[in-house]
Amino acid sequence: MELVLTNRILTNGHYREELEKIRCAEENRIFCRHDIEHFMNVARITLIRCAEKGIEADPDVIYSAALLHDIGRYAEYTEGIPHDEAGVKIASEILEETDCPQDVKAVILSITGSHRRTDNEKDSLEYIFHWADKKSRMCFCCQAQAECNWHHDKRNMDIEV
Questions:
Q1: CA end-to-end span of the chain, whole Å?
Q2: Which residue range forms the structural domain that includes residue 103?
Q3: Is residue 160 part of a domain?
Q4: How far apart, in whole angstroms, are the C-alpha atoms of residue 160 and residue 62?
Q5: What is the domain-level CATH number for residue 143?
Q6: Which helix (H) or strand (E) holds 77?
Q7: Beta-carbon neighbour count of residue 65 at 10 Å?
Q8: CA separation for the pair 111, 62 (Å, rounded)
């Protein structure tokens, strides 16, 4: 399957600029970073979980949402705006620039805008994406565990399916 929208986002100048700002801001970060590796892990885990549960998910939509879900991190670091809120605005601009159809845009913005919420409807794309975002982190082998501000109960200390 060709990931047309995903690749448009990946090569979009605005997207690349925002990603570079996040990279620079996190350059000396000892905790999990918000980079392409994280985004790809979230997309893959989401798609696997959807397949396991028999939930239809368009890979182009999921990969696009994964690329965009943390795009508001720089605004959070510099302006104190929650990254999910800032990210929806930035993601919306990028999706417009990449000629994303409005119905697809609505799904992607719903996923990205709710990826931090714990009250998403169970087995919805939003719920699974939120779960995958958390499960993508490898706390069990992290060198910064002692300094991490994630509550111990939320950390991924085991590999699970």
A1: 25
A2: 4-154
A3: no
A4: 21
A5: 1.10.3210
A6: helix 73-79
A7: 29
A8: 9
